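User: Sequence in, structure out. Go.
Assistant: Echoing your sequence, followed by the structure tokens.
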Amino acid sequence: MKKFLLLSLLALFGAASARADSRAEYVTRIETCEAILQQFMANPATAIPAQVLERARALVIVNQIRAGFFFGVKDGYGVILIKKADGRWSLPVLVGAGEISLGLQVGVNASETVMVITNDATPRMLFNDRFHVGVDANAIAGPNAAEAEKFNKDLLETPVLVYTKSRGLYAGATVKTGWLQRSDAANFTLYGTQYTMPELLYGDWVQPVPEVVPLMEYVKKLAP
């Protein structure tokens, strides 16, 4: 029975992903991620402090939905932007996001997360198709603006600082938030190119399409 439920949930999310193949859907994902970041920054309880953003070498914004009973399946999407060596922010590149967990869990809920990556090596782990947050790179809950006493060197140098609207996390707590995965096909459609994630993030061969410019400008404003 448990196996059947798990397979059913996977099929449900797989079908949803299969339908999300139009450019309009991918534009909506970019706009949703921009809105998530704006909402985080507008709320003092979730706003990312300037001291953290100053150290950002990449930002990941994730939108997920969790559904389950005996098994929990969290499926979603996100974007990643990296800060290039010359200080410019890259194009936002679409990624997949997911997690499977065991144990009694009832219902459906949404989860929104912003990750501040503080080094140049961690984003490149996504080149290997799938990157497990908190496993492939250390990840902890990031401090908010009210937690100035927690702004120590070790915390700010953690590879991934995670900000989420889920309850129960405190600054410095170890975090495992599932995986991020390359979505080259989605980016082919969004940008009308055959360039893959490495070229889109680190190259200058593809110009921003109009729909991604507002997100790029907002990130530039937050972390110039």
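User: And one key feature?
Assistant: The chain is about 30% helix and 25% strand.
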